[in-house]
Amino acid sequence: MIIGLVGQVCAGKSAVAEAFRRRGARVWSADKAVHEIYRDPRAIREVVRLFGPEVLNPAGGIDRQALARIVFAGPAPLQKLTRQVIFPRTGRAIRAEVERFRASRAPALVLDAPTLFESGRDRLCDRIVFVGAPLARRQKWARARGWDRSELKRREQRLGDERLKRRRADAVIRNLGTLRDLDQRVGKILVRWGGCESAAAPSR
């Protein structure tokens, strides 16, 4: 079973992914994949060609905060980045991960990918999980990332229709309580869908 994991910005998708992992699932993280892409010299050159040298840090790598300020300023820059640089590379990475999953004994593969629908990769998934959380919580977690007050809203505006994603999901998790609560929600979902291995719940 391949499970797509989407949701609101700063809603706790990583914690949900970790709960799946504790139950034996493989987890592919789009964020980690993008970190790898930004270490690829060819990808760095493409990003500089699209957006200029101001996206580079002093070491010659991609300054992700500088790049975010550009691409989240409007839809056109973000589409250029995703369509020309990110999606082709993450597509290859996902296909390779699916092959590894098929050859493994893991009960599930979780694709933790905020732009799953935008990239069309939802078609690979048997199930979709949407993760949401109250705005106050998400603002708190955004501040912990060092984002200013407008950054959360700006990023959300550049992603696809949240309501549509929620309607297309097979399960919706509202991150309202503790990590233990979140873990139990994941466990119940997996029982309903055929299950993965049991795991010890987190202490918080």
How is this structure best described in words?
This protein is an alpha/beta fold and 204 residues long. The protein has one domain: Rossmann fold, CATH 3.40.50. It contains 9 helices and 5 strands; from the N terminus they run βαβααααββαααβα. It has helices at 13-22, 30-37, 41-51, 64-71, 75-103, 135-144, 151-157, 162-168, 179-193; strands at residues 2-7, 26-29, 109-112, 127-132, 171-174. Strands 2-3-1-4-5 form a 5-stranded parallel sheet, sandwiched between helices. The radius of gyration is 17 Å and the shape is globular. The two termini are 28 Å apart. 30% of the residues are buried.
Q: Which key terms come to mind for this protein?
A:
204 residues; alpha/beta; 51% helix
Write the layout of secondary structure elements.
Elements: E1 2-7, H1 13-22, E2 26-29, H2 30-37, H3 41-51, H4 64-71, H5 75-103, E3 109-112, E4 127-132, H6 135-144, H7 151-157, H8 162-168, E5 171-174, H9 179-193
Parallel strand pairs: 1-3, 1-4, 2-3, 4-5
